[in-house]
# Entry
Amino acid sequence: MRPADADGFREAWAMLERLWQRTVERARRMAPELLHERVEGEWSFIETLRHLVFATDAWVRRAILGEPSPWDPLDLPHDEMPHEPSVPRDRGARPSLDEVLALRADRMATVRQVIADLTDEKLAGMTEPVMEPGYPAPESFAVRRCLQAILNEEWEHRLYAERDLDVLESRSS
# Structure
């Protein structure tokens, strides 16, 4: 998950999409209420997917594509993020898996398109700062940093999700 060039980012993203597809298929076989259950204080499966929507909205739609307010009401920022009034943070929302997956499919398609259009020159470039309030802060970022953040989030949170699905399956059997 540390690609060196645009082709490497395409390969990494394709791999992540395949891995997530298997993880989602596994989650679909579980009772819907289990997908809202937290394991050892970590986010539930649904909350994890909501957080990944937030990550894409922040690092791809806002930082790279320049959308000042890309947020969906279901976005879930990381707990350590300072309160930012322009960014939703509804911890009590309990959307269905299908509702979150529809939102997630849209965001994954956005990342897929950005990476499909990526050149080594673009990858080496910087973003234009988005001056409106939000997250990330109004500054210029290395495009590589933004896309690497997405790969890291996707990779790590899938590992956490798989670990937690193991626990939930063992509890329900």
The mean pLDDT is 96. The first helix runs from residue 6 to 28. Residues 87 and 134 are 6 Å apart (CA to CA).
